[in-house]
Write a structure and sequence with these properties.
Elements: E1 12-17, E2 23-28, E3 35-38, E4 53-59, E5 65-70, H1 83-94, E6 99-103, H2 111-116, E7 124-127, E8 130-132, H3 135-145, H4 159-163, H5 168-177, H6 181-203, H7 233-253, H8 262-271, H9 275-278, H10 284-290
Parallel strand pairs: 1-3
Antiparallel strand pairs: 1-2, 2-6, 3-7, 4-5, 7-8
Helix pairs in contact: 1-3, 1-7, 5-6, 5-7, 6-8
Catalytic activity: chloride(in) = chloride(out); iodide(out) = iodide(in); fluoride(in) = fluoride(out); choline(out) = choline(in)
Pfam families: CLIC-like_N, GST_C_2
Membrane topology: Single-pass membrane protein
């Protein structure tokens, strides 16, 4: 049986992400009490106990890299789908935490794991005997514990960046779960409206991009991400969901994010060049499988 809890009493953090069954990530930290975070896999019923595969490495603050051995997806190799767990994984990666992963099959999870938070759906975190189940609270906790000077802050400087695109996933869910043809057009318009709002935010210059002493008027932002040229917590939250929208809406509704929304496409394409996103992201196939029973056919 895999060891999914930290072996050190006060110098490690264990994170279980939603990667097909589950995975426990042991991280080398200093002066931090034992922490455990557990995540889920949305289509675990499709899986057998997978063999751990070395799929990614995460950078350490000293430049050292350690292998991340993660559970397989439905094909026995790839990462499974869960944007909430990917969000937490991206945070750890961006902070440069050195980590190792040990696989745990959630269908046959050890009794100790089941007893940590009975009746609670992952992802969740335990700290000093207290269980935290809200992903936003877990994010706040990691940002507070993994802090300067050893770890960078990932909070957005502009409050608007934290809410940009916040309605997209809800509109997408309503659109993809609908089975009534007469409601499809209105739901698609609702999704397009939220995407357009995000595109406008990404195109609009942030206050620090505007030089008030210059005679030139900056009309279009040149930044790479929501809050600037570096990823923040806002991106860790939005990007996994936005990618799912792109993949699933195309597969099950023939819907593409309009090419005219150039800022969104620029945002996604830049994310696809970043290992913090790509090495924690499931394949398109895994995302499609996860939504196979969620997406509803339009029935006349």
């Amino acid at each position: 049986m895999p060891n999914f809890l930290p072996t050190s009493s006060n110098l490690s953090l264990s994170l279980s992400l939603s990667l097909s069954a589950s995975a426990a990530i042991s991280l080398s930290l200093q002066q931090i009490p034992a922490i455990s975070v557990f995540g889920r896999e949305l289509q675990s019923a499709l899986l057998q106990t997978p063999e751990g595969r070395s799929l990614a490495t995460a950078p350490g603050t000293d430049g050292e890299r350690k292998k991340s051995v993660q559970c397989a997806g439905s094909d026995g190799e790839s990462i499974g789908n869960c944007p909430f767990s990917q969000r937490l994984f991206m945070i750890l990666w961006l902070k440069g935490v050195v980590f190792n992963v040990t696989t745990v099959d959630l269908k046959r999870k050890p009794a100790d794991l089941q007893n940590l938070a009975p009746g609670t759906h992952p992802p969740f975190i335990t700290f000093n005997g207290e269980v935290k189940t809200d992903v936003n609270k877990i994010e706040e906790f990691l940002e507070d514990v993994l802090c300067p000077p050893k770890y960078i802050k990932l909070g957005a400087r502009h409050p608007e960046s934290n809410t940009a695109g916040m309605d997209i996933f809800a509109k997408f869910s309503a659109f993809i779960k609908n089975s009534k043809p007469d409601a499809n057009e209105a739901l698609e318009r609702g999704l397009l409206k939220t995407l357009q709002k995000l595109d406008e935010y990404l195109r609009s210059p942030l206050p620090d991009e505007i030089d008030h002493n210059s005679i030139e008027d900056v009309k279009v932002s040149n930044r790479k991400f929501l809050d600037g040229d570096e990823m923040t917590l806002a991106d860790c939250n939005l990007l996994p969901k936005l990618h799912i929208v792109k993949v699933v809406a195309k597969k099950y509704r023939g819907f593409d994010i309009p090419k005219e929304m150039t800022a969104i496409w620029k945002y996604l394409n830049i994310a696809y060049t970043r290992e913090e996103f790509t090495n924690t992201c499931p394949s398109d196939k895994e995302i499609e499988i996860a939504y196979a029973d969620v997406a509803k056919r339009l029935v006349k």
